[in-house]
Amino acid sequence: MRLDLLLKREDFPRIFEQSFTKYLSDVFEVIAFVNWRNNSKSNTYLLVNHKLNVIYSKNINRRKLKSISSEYAYHQNILRHFLQKVYINIAICSYFEWLFIKAIIEIEPSNFDLSGLCIIPGNHSIRIIDLEASSCRVILKEGFNSKFIKNEIHLRNKYNFLPIPKLLNFDSEGLWYEEEQVNALPLNRINFQVIKDKALLNAQLFLSRLYKKTLVRVNLGNYLESLYDSCISLIKTLPCPYTQDNKKRIEGILILLIANLSKFKDYDIELVQSHGDFQPANILVDKIEEHLYLIDWEYSDKRSLYYDALVFETQSRAPKGLSKRLRRALDESNTSWRWCTNNIQAKLTKLELSVFLIEDLIVRLSELQIPNMINKDEGLDIWIREIEGVDWSTYE
């Protein structure tokens, strides 16, 4: 998640101060004072560029900083691509960067070198890239659920055939891990369709292999009970911006989706180890050798066989217009999700779609279990409106 969105959602400056203080203690064995300050110029260690989603030392190697930030220059529109490339070149230039810096981070004492670090804020974690060692330490944001870091560590250790950046080290308590830093672009920032098609196909093949190794059949009724309990628990623990009325509305959507499945409870359903956030931004391609990497496994869990494919094909992470995309999948106007089944004749029904949406609701609620939350998540509100707009009576 980009820094500008994080700042709207949560008290990220305070979270960063706490998290980075712990990092400095763990790595440099120093007790430091970290202070996030807005709209101020200072000879400080770290500068914050919201647009490039990066925090870095004023003494950083600019060529390497450009390599990290260069993905933001890629856009299918030629004019946008040109303007974004110009922005990056100016914004990372030491002479002009203060025009684009909205915050600085003071660190006292300052008698240790952070010039080789580049920091990328994230949803549940913070990525601290060591440009000299070509490695990245991913640390849990202070106060956040460690299960997201543990998911990453578990998947890499158990399924080492998956194309994930190499795991170098990790904390057994699930508070951080280190991985090899890769020089790669996400699928949505690659201009060449041949490369994109090849990478997507290979990503699907790796996931299909994972599914084959982890597939189990369970009773749908029992699975729905588990999903319902998980969802209700997450609704109850939503942070303070969510009122009781908000929670009742979310629960109403859950009950609607469960009701769609009332006549199917004696059926069996196939569950697999899913990626959990299978979208173009999490499919990377090496800039030089075109190696594939699948990243961000923090939401990985046992879910329905269709889950990852439907996240990708319905673009559920960008919920605006979701009801139309769901209708296309149900009407068979879009059948590209079939790769997960190895059955080109497979038909998506209300059963598969309703289970998918309940699972997706749980993922959305999981990512909102945020300490120091400031505002409600706009994405969840849009997602709910889209589901409310689906005419379920027309589907079997």
How is this structure best summarized?
The protein has twelve helices and 15 strands. With 396 residues, the protein is α+β, with helices and mostly antiparallel strands. It has a nine-stranded antiparallel sheet, with helices on both faces. A three-stranded antiparallel sheet has the order 10-13-14, covered by helices on one side.
Protein described:
By secondary structure, this protein is of the alpha+beta class. It contains 12 helices and 15 strands. The strands form 3 sheets. A 9-stranded antiparallel β-sheet has the order 1-4-2-3-5-6-7-9-8, sandwiched between helices. Strands 10-13-14 form a 3-stranded antiparallel β-sheet, with helices on one face. A 3-stranded antiparallel β-sheet has the order 11-12-15. Strand 2 and strand 3 form a beta hairpin. The protein is globular, with a radius of gyration of 22 Å. 35% of the residues are buried. The mean pLDDT is 91.
